[in-house]
Amino acid sequence: MEQINFAAIDIGSNAVRLLIKGIYKGETANQLKKTFIVRVPLRLGQDAFTLGRISNDKTERLLRLIAAFKQMMQVYRVISYRACATSAMRDASNGSEVVRYISEQTGINIDIIDGKEEARIVYDSHIVDILNRPGDYLYVDVGGGSTEISLIKDCKLKDSRSYNIGTVRILNNKVRKEELLKLYSDLRSLASEYPDISIIGSGGNINKIYKLSGTAKGEPLSLESLYQVSNMLQALPIKERMKQYDLKPDRADVIVPAAELFIQITRHLNCKSIWVPTIGIADGITYSLCSDYLNTHNK
Questions:
Q1: What tens digit of pLDDT does each residue of 149-203 get?
Q2: How crowded is the C-beta side of 255, counted as CA atoms within 13 Å?
């Protein structure tokens, strides 16, 4: 029996990903299984946040990458895909021009989405169902260019906000103090209104921190463990972090500001831990594509 495959291309500020997930006939979207994944550290945010535009070199590298992704989707006989670009492409003065050029050259259409759309896509992955725990949640996605927070109450997305605060921005000193203060103020308001709120953390950095902490699978990452991992990493130069903890170069530098940001978010919400179900925007995209397919073909 041949698998029915769906693909997501996530063009982020730090890396570009291709995720392919599939089901077999008779299965549901909840049974999607990972078929193929690749992540390439293109770091578009380095250009967007310092130069204000995507350079010709990065544009050509992105073009070759998307062309390669198209080939992989053909190999896996993907029946439906969506490509989304986030913070770096939003900020770049030539972002629309870049995606139009790549679409013309490859035939792959790319949507530049805003922070609220990012949050909605992740919510579409039914992230609360994965935790299988009732309650109020704040979904926090820390990326290279932006941080999205989404309030989930009674398993429904109530509100989402996006802030121009991300790990690549932090490394390049491109985060405005006013933006940080706005985030912290919003978090304190949420903590006051929802005193029992829990945090769901998303992104490659929190996933790696979770793994380094040694927390048992299915258990939340404690604030104490988050502090320990953060201190452990900060004490080492980047090359030593790579060597001792098997970190890739593009992860070894951004993981420290990510840890600090999660610490601040946890403190301002008065939370003691973070749930880390290792799911993100690409999972949400494939879930939505699969659901749409099944709704159409099961009528």
A1: 989 887 788 898 999 999 999 999 999 999 999 999 999 999 999 999 999 998 8
A2: 31
Output 18-23 pairs: Cβ under 8 A, ≥24 positions apart. Answer: 18/69, 18/72, 18/73, 19/282, 19/283, 19/285, 19/286, 20/72, 20/73, 20/76, 20/78, 20/286, 21/283, 21/286, 21/290, 22/76, 23/290
The overall pTM is greater than 0.85: yes
Closest CA to 286 of 141, 146, 76: 76
- Residue 109 CB neighbours (<10 A): 12
| Alpha helices in 43-176, H assignment, sequence order | 44-50, 56-75, 87-91, 95-106, 115-123, 127-131, 167-171
| CB-based contact 161:178 (threshold 8 Å) | no
Q: Can you read off the two tokens belonging to residue 18? A: 């291709």
Q: What does the CA dihedral 285, 257, 99, 163 come to, rounded to 10 degrees? A: 80
The DSSP code for 53 is S
Residue 272: partners with Cβ closer than 8 Å, 6 or more residues away: 222, 223, 266
Contact 107, 69 (CB under 8 A): no
Phi-psi sector, 161: left (phi>0), alpha (psi -120 to 50), beta: beta
Of the candidates 88, 53, 76, 60, the residue with the CA atom closest to the CA atom of residue 6: 76
Q: 């392919």: which residue's tokens?
A: 20
Q: How many helices (H) and strands (E) does the chain have?
A: 14, 11
- The rounded distance, in Å, linking the Cα atoms of 232 and 96 is 41
